[in-house]
Amino acid sequence: MKKFLSALQKNMMAVAFAEAGEWDTAKEMIPVTELSREPTKLNSIFMAITFAESGLPHDAVSFLELFDHKNRGFNASIAEELGLHGVRVLYGTVSL
Which one of 9, 58, 63, 68 has the largest count of C-beta atoms within 10 Å of its C-beta? Predict the structure, then answer.
């Protein structure tokens, strides 16, 4: 967690310098990382959501790792309606 907060702080400082027009200083604060061509688990989930919301559920499923177990109860009806067979559907509510 400490590493994450430190990286977040550096990124926010770099953003502040970039917004002030100090491009070189901002670039020095961001470490150069090698990008992978493989999508992360989180990227795969967001890509699946994008395709599902665009009305392409079969393409959305191709980004997800299917589970061997069956959905039960309310989750099963949501998944069946969306054409997501074997994909666990999670949902929740937030009260303010």
Answer: 63
pLDDT recorded at residue 4:
82
Residue 78: predicted pLDDT = 64
Instruction: State both tokens at 67.
Output: 């589970």
Rounded Cα gap, residues 17 and 22, in angstroms: 5
Report pLDDT for 79: 63
Compute, in degrees rounded to 10, the torsion defined by CA atoms 30, 35, 40, 46: 70
Report the alpha-carbon distance of residue 28 to residue 32 in Å, rounded: 9
Question: What is the three-class DSSP state of 87?
Answer: coil
DSSP H helical ranges for 1-96: 2-19, 23-29, 41-53, 57-62, 73-82
Average pLDDT, integer, range 21-45 = 80
